[in-house]
Every structure is written in structure tokens, then in C-alpha cells.
């Protein structure tokens, strides 16, 4: 709406016209916002059904995807993004804006990627052969995926109240949407647990952990890790304690109890008490170098297994 400057006030007729225009614009904005919200909800329901195991080739699911402009017959790569938002009351609004930003970015690609919120993160199933509307961007497949992932991260990080964003990418070897999502979600969780944030992450970036993420059965990893840390893990589950977290931070702090205490915001004596409790429960000697190697491997396996599980 535009009003000319001037010292003369509006006439009654002009005031009525202004009121009428305001109502019309408000209704139009409400209609547009409602349409966007419904579209996001429908895409979220479609994504949830796909990731819960519904067959993308089934007629009902295929028809729903077609109506929303998505072709599920093509191979896709999965992106999973998480915001770094320090103000908790603003988190929901920040994610809504981030979702809108990524959806707007996805609209520039054909076939159209499927973008929605899922399990507290922005998830995008991106067709591998999607072509950007503009001619810019790398031509190599892996470089193009990295370029898109970087664009998604920048779009998410640009919203108000976001201090950064981390986006993880699945590999291109996954044969199903579920496998691609599980790999990307696991890569995100492992990256965040190991201190990598405000960046893009691929399984290749995570070394052995990235390779293990592509296993189909996380139970094998948990079983192997439980040979070392089963009692400690069960203690945490039963009593809601923080022994595994303390052990992980202790290792990440270079075996310094003082630094671990600072990171955990507890007294060094508390760290010492927790470590002694771990030694008793697991029958370990944390002063032995071989034990530290064994415990570190077990923690990595747990990170991969738990990170790769749908959350």
C-alpha cells in the first residue's frame, strides 16, 4: 500500500478506501500463509510415510507425490539439517523460517525435491538428477551434491535467531529412502557429538564412523560396544545418570579431569567419582592405554548405532 505525503488529512472516502484495501490485503496474506502451511503439512505427512516404510511405488503414495510435484521413481540423496538456536522460545519459529527458506531453494530445482520437517530437523529428499533452474554450479555429481548441501545450510543459517546450521548428506549408494535418511541422520548426530557443527558433513568426512553408518543393522554395533560398556550403558538408562557422557568428554579432553569438569560444568571431584564408578561397573582400568583405545572404539560404535537409529 502506498500513501502520498502531505499535510492534508484523508477524506472520509479515502479512509474507507484505505480500510477496505487493508482488509483485502490481510485476507490475501492469510490465504497465502494458509496455503503454504497446508503444503508444508502435506509434504511432511508424505515424507513421514515414506520414511516409516511405505512403498514409494504404491499407487496411493505415488499419486500423493505427483500432486505435490515429486517424482519418487528417481534415486534421491538425503539431507538432514539442524539449527543452532540458543534462545529456546524462538526455536520453533526459527525452524519454520528455515523450512520456508529451504523449500524456496528447492523450488528452483527439477525434479522438485521433497522438503519437510521430520523428527525435529529439516529433511530433504533430493533427486540425484535434479537440474538447477540456473546454469551456475559444478557439473560433477559429488561436487553438485556438496554445492546443494552448502546452499541448504546457508539458507537455514540465514534465518533470524540462528547462530549456525549443520547439514549432513547421505551417500549415493543407498537403495531406499529409509537407508538414505538413516545415513544422513546418523552422520549429523555423530558430527554433532564429536564437535563438528555449522558445516556440511558427508559419511566420507567421518572416516570409519561414516563407513559403519552405512551398515543396515545397528544392533550389531551395539552388541559389539556392549562387550565393553554394557553395564555402564544400562546404568545410565536405569538411573538417568551421565556416565557415558562423562566418559566421552573425558576422552575428548585428552584424559584431563579438570578440562572435562569445565566442559561438563561440574567439580573435578565429580568427574573422578564418575570415572571410578565406570571402572567398577565395566571392570576397566582407565589408566591403561589399551583400555582407552577399547573404550574409544566402543563409544564410536554407540555414536554410530544410536545416530543411525530413527529419532
UniProtKB/TrEMBL annotation:
Matching Pfam families: GGDEF_2 (PF17853), HTH_30 (PF13556)
Domain PucR C-terminal helix-turn-helix: 243-300
Top-level taxon of the source organism: Bacteria
Annotated ranges, domain CdaR GGDEF-like: 58-190
PANTHER family: CARBOHYDRATE DIACID REGULATOR, DNA-BINDING TRANSCRIPTIONAL ACTIVATOR ADER
Annotated family: Belongs to the CdaR family.
Name the UniProt record assigns to this protein: Helix-turn-helix domain-containing protein
Amino acid at each position: 500500500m502506498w500513501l502520498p505525503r502531505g499535510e492534508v488529512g484523508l477524506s472520509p472516502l479515502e479512509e474507507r478506501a484505505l480500510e477496505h484495501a487493508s482488509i483485502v490485503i490481510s485476507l490475501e496474506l492469510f490465504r497465502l500463509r494458509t496455503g503454504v502451511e497446508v503444503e508444508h503439512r502435506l509434504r511432511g505427512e508424505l515424507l513421514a510415510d515414506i520414511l516409516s516404510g511405505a512403498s514409494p511405488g504404491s499407487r496411493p503414495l505415488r499419486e500423493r507425490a505427483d500432486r505435490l510435484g515429486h517424482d519418487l521413481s528417481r534415486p534421491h540423496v538425503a539431507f538432514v539439517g539442524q539449527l543452532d538456536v540458543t534462545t529456546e522460545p524462538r526455536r520453533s519459529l526459527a525452524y519454520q523460517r528455515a523450512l520456508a527458506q529451504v523449500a524456496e531453494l528447492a523450488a528452483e530445482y527439477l525434479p522438485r525435491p521433497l522438503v519437510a520437517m521430520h523428527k525435529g530437523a529439516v529433511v530433504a529428499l533430493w533427486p540425484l538428477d535434479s537440474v538447477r533452474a540456473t546454469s551456475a554450479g559444478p557439473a560433477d555429481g559429488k561436487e553438485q551434491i556438496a554445492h546443494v548441501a552448502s546452499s541448504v545450510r546457508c539458507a537455514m543459517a540465514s534465518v533470524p535467531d540462528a547462530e549456525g546450521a549443520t547439514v549432513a548428506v547421505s551417500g549415493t549408494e543407498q537403495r531406499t529412502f529409509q537407508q538414505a535418511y538413516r545415513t544422513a541422520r546418523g552422520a549429523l548426530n555423530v558430527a554433532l557429538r564429536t564437535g563438528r557443527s555449522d558445516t556440511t558433513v558427508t559419511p566420507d568426512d567421518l572416516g570409519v564412523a561414516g563407513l559403519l553408518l552405512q551398515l543396515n543393522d545397528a544392533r550389531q554395533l551395539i552388541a559389539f560396544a556392549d562387550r565393553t560398556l554394557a553395564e555402564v550403558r544400562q546404568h545410565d538408562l536405569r538411573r538417568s545418570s551421565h556416565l557415558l557422557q562423562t566418559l566421552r568428554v573425558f576422552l575428548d579432553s585428552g584424559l584431563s579431569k579438570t578440562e572435562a569438569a569445565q566442559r561438563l560444568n561440574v567439580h573435578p571431584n565429580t568427574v573422578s567419582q564418575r570415572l571410578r564408578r565406570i571402572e567398577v561397573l565395566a571392570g576397566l582400568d582407565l589408566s591403561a592405554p589399551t583400555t582407552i583405545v577399547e573404550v574409544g572404539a566402543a563409544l564410536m560404535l554407540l555414536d554410530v548405532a544410536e545416530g543411525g537409529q530413527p529419532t
